[in-house]
Amino acid sequence: MRRLLYIAVIVALIVVGVLFGSINQQLADLNLLIISARLRVVDIALIFLLLGITLGLMIALLYSLQRKAKGWLRKSTDNS
């Protein structure tokens, strides 16, 4: 049941994303520090969404590795 709910939420988010993409076709200027580009609004949203997901996964991975390293250090000091 939980898996079905999870799949339904993912499908709903994909549908909302497709609708957002089809509605927002106008161009917008994206001015960053070293580059300037003219992109569609949906492309800008997708870029920042993927950037946020990537950064979030990297932070979660670093946090997970840090917790595992603390556990390994505790085990090695307990055995000596």
Q: How would you explain this protein's 3D organization?
A:
It is a single chain. By secondary structure, the protein is of the alpha+beta class. The chain has one domain. Helix content is 76%, strand content 12%. The chain is built from two helices and two strands; from the N terminus they run αββα. The chain has helices at 2-23, 41-79; strands spanning 27-31, 36-40. Strands 1-2 form a two-stranded antiparallel ribbon. The longest helix has 39 residues, at 41-79. It is flat. The model has no long low-confidence stretch (mean pLDDT 84).
Describe the largest sheet. 2 strands, antiparallel
In round numbers, the mean pLDDT is 84
Distance between the termini: 48 Å
Annotation field: number of helices: 2
The coarse silhouette is flat
Task: Provide a quick synopsis of the model.
This is DUF1049 domain-containing protein. The chain is about 75% helix and about 10% strand.
